[in-house]
Description:
The chain is globular and about 90 Å long. The protein is about 45% helix and about 15% strand. The protein contains 31 helices and 27 strands.
Amino acid sequence: MSPDDWFAARGxxxxxxxxxxxxxxxxxxxxxxxATTGSGKTLAVWIGALLRxxxxxxxxxxxxxxxxxxxxxxxxxxxxxxxxxxxxxxPMWRVGQRTGDTPAAERARQDRRxxxxxxxxxxxxxxxxxxxxxxxxxxxxxxxxxDEWHELIGNKRGVQVQxxxxxxxxxxxxxxxxxxxxxxxxLAEAMATLTGRGDATLVRGVHDKTLVIDTLLxxxxxxxxxxxxxxxxxxxxxxxxxAASGTTLVFTNTRSQAExxxxxxxxxxxxWAGLVALHHGSLDKAVREWVEAGLxxxxxKAVVATSSLDLGVDFLPVERVLxxxxxxxxxxxxxxxxxxxxxxxxxxxxxxxxxxxxxxVEAAAARRAAQAGRVESRSSPEAPLDVLVQHIVTVAIxxxxxxxxxxxxxxxxxxxxxxxxGLPREAFDWALAFCERGGDSLSAYPEYxxxxxxxxxxxxxxxxxxxxxxxxxxxxxxxxxxxxxxWASAGGAGATLGHVEEGFxxxxxxxxxxxxxxxxxxxxxTHEMAALVRVAKKSRGVIPAWAGxxxxxxxxxAEAVQALLExxxxxxxxxxxxxxxxxxxxxxxxxxxxxVRDALLVERFDSREGHHVxxxxxxxxxxxxxxxxxxxxxxxHRVAGAQPNTFSLSVNDYGLEIVAAAPLPEGALDDAALFxxxxxxxxxxxSLNSGQLAQRRFREIAxxxxxxxxxxPGAPKSLRQLQASSSLFFExxxxxxxxxxxxxxxxxxxxxxxxxxxxxxxxxxRLQALPRHTVTLAAPSPFALPLMIExxxxxxxxxxxxxxxxxxxxxxxxxxxxxxxxxxxxxxGASSRAT
Length: 835
């Protein structure tokens, strides 16, 4: 049966872009298919792979096609989708699945005979490369499909994929590689990074699929707002939207927010118990699979989820998608919207639910940017040596009769991966020596002598225990050690609910209550790296906070927000979101000015706490963290008249606050040294606790590079043990192996990833060239208030914060009344309504 016949049997016709992909793949071309979610990307590349297989000799045995996916949940869904066309197009083929969730019995069957196509993850592919018969197993692979490439390209998992593809090309120089993506701004770069070729084929799929982005508007957004200010007000409107729709996905930015909104929905509609579910990465696999099955069968009214469900998993019954809080980036909107109407020709809709008034502006800006196609770019990390060290050991384990590798050949192979194209030979040789003897400071310890050079000049792993430990540690996903949450039972531990970070459990006392897996739980005790719990009698509890909980605003979205603010400054409130945010924006204009792109707004305010300075660069939270530290340090050391001072700092995506205990030197904010980019690196390092930041980053590097072993199955090491081990290595290397390149990598990653040094430099260059609009405030402005609250949350209890907030809002309302000539007594009580 031909592809046309298969399509016709279902009443379909192939799209032109699908035919274009089939033709390119049959010509042996690699490439990237960029198309909207639900437009038919899977059939385009999968049928192309089957057509390539038909051109091979009949009855070619073994594995021929690899399908790489970033998520285990996506692997199961993809396997089902790939099996559908086989009956007509490749009846003798089997599609298998191999991930960390694959049962041992299925793995054993695959070890005896692999299917013709295998859906797997980057980590599982690396483990296959570490098998003794890796060449015999994988040499027959002629096509590799990398799904959701935009999720992989910007991190070390994407680098792991690049190295694996370089290895597969060595086995089969004619390998064809195709990537799939719906949301990338730098398509040519992304394609070249995946395929390793500058002449690959870029195919753009149909983009006429309707994308609807709207906003659930609050009734009273208020003139002053802060993080989470509108949460409770939006509870009832969200419930109404869900009640009026079919199955609804409610996306949140963090796992903590997902737990919170799940409780809010059930508080409003207790009759939805069993019809509303929760899904995030820390829940037990069985719970997640139950939720996914309920979605597919249309049995659930709503699911509150993180991005664990928005990577293209096919849930046709889903009719509505709500996004709680700002998407923080443009690309997430079409990705989330694609979770509903996940089929060609059906409109996709996502509704944004603001949690503070400024997010109304972000919502309108995100819609404009998405409609204009201004999507974020993502680039590969450059030559991470921890991933290279791991790969060297992997290749030294795997092979065939001719196991291991020759150094010159592996160096050439590694440099064919775009992430390592500029890797100097001395850096490769250092990584090789590090695998051989652990560097200068670990040469006396045999467990760090992981590879040895044989008489034939090839490098191998000779010790079986070393190979076994390495296979248990393969991968680049590093997170803080977690503890299983299990029901307490008479025999000890019962069923597992999921996992939370060990540090959170360590702060609990017996009887403390916390919210997890949609329940209020009472902590009983710890038992063998598990937290034993029971159902709490209380109705409230603390919600765990997971690391990495705050997402920074992308530069594309920040640019779009500022463009809307400039329009508002001219009186343009055409978007419904801007009309709703109008009272706050007008209050900002009366008390101060609206921040715009062609000037830097500087607000000054004195209080009992000290001397406040607010700046609004709109560069995102990560950049503002480094910028605030840098400016405070320069105010005390670099500007004219600088003198020691004590500073408190606060940042958000829009701006930063610096609170000085003593008055700043006259003209300090206009000093050219404040925003200078010369001597930027030493000033940044001096302003930060760079040693501590680098040590924290080194923990991840040490685990990826195989220095720190997480323990055997059933006997994991605790977070304290892992941290102690990585900290010990960090100090040993600093004192006795100062040239250790992993230390340098840690410092570079802090600057490049955590502080976004390149973006920080660009921000300073931009701020240097801008005129300053300096405003002395009579009361905190609507843009300044969230920054103050961000800082006060770290210092005050909930009750004290509430009292302080009421006073700050009252001061702001009074200042607004004064600016309009309204007697203050007429506005008494306004703060309680605003709060």
